[in-house]
Amino acid sequence: MSPDVPLLNDYKQDFFLKRFPQTVLGGPRLKLGYCAPPYIYINQIILFLMPWVLGGIGTLLYQLGTLEDYYTAALSGGLMLFTAFVIQFTSLHARNKSVTVERMLPTDILAQEDEHEFTSCAGAETIKFLIPGKKSIANTVFHSVFAGLICGLGTWYLLPNRITLLYGSAGGTVLLFVFGWMTLCIGEYSLIVNTATETATFQTQDTYEITPLMRPLYIFFFVSVDLAHSVPGHPRALLEDVQDCCFHAC
Asked: Which Gene Ontology cellular component annotation is one that this UniProt entry carries (predicted)?
């Protein structure tokens, strides 16, 4: 290929700059190919950070000594479960309305594939654009329950005291806490709000909506390993208990 020929032309650059953040963040469309109202971006940011806020409530109560770690996980998971159901039923209510999203005629498929016109911040057309909803009631319930489970386990896993015991430094605690919650927000957004368009997957063929489960499943597997080591009766947990008893006896 000639060195004067760009790897990506102008059209493909616009498409890449729009699609790449959406894929990395798990679904938020923070760069659209047209001038969208500011509340479209603000609503997406609020929905994206919602798990962090709900988990932060439990974390704060734990740090203040009000709740034990397992009650903290249950509280955050319950709040996330309730929020997920509210989000899904809000989307269902918007879809049942007669208002339709007005689609603008695109001049380029790559750069302007999702141009819409919006009339209000909380209108039916805005909700349907931000939260497409699930294809079946079974997935609505299952994904909402799974979102609550992931948020509860993630809150328990990312408790600052637990991270400090693991790394022994304030810097490591802060980094793992921030990036850990960013990962949880990405997984939760993909699960209950809107899934990123994967480049190698046709969404029309995803009949059982497996794609929204992939990111949360990765999180669940990682957290489950630490959870298994912390369960009483696990060989490693028993060894740590024996070591603690010997240390105190000495």
From this structure: membrane
Helix/strand/coil (H, E, C) string of the chain? CCCCCCCCCHHHHHHHHHHHHHHHHCCCCCCCCCCCCHHHHHHHHHHHHHHHHHHHHHHHHHHCCCCCHHHHHHHHHHHHHHHHHHHHHHHHHHHHCCCCCEECCCCCCCCCCCCEECCCCCCHHHHHHHCCCCCCHHHHHHHHHHHHHHHHHHHHHCCHHHHHHHHCCHHHHHHHHHHHHHHHHHHHHHHHCCCCCCCCCCHHHCCCCCHHHHHHHHHHHHHHHHHHHHCCCCHHHHHHHHHHHHHHHC
Average pLDDT over residues 146-163: 94
With 0.90 as the threshold, say if the pTM is over it.
Answer: no
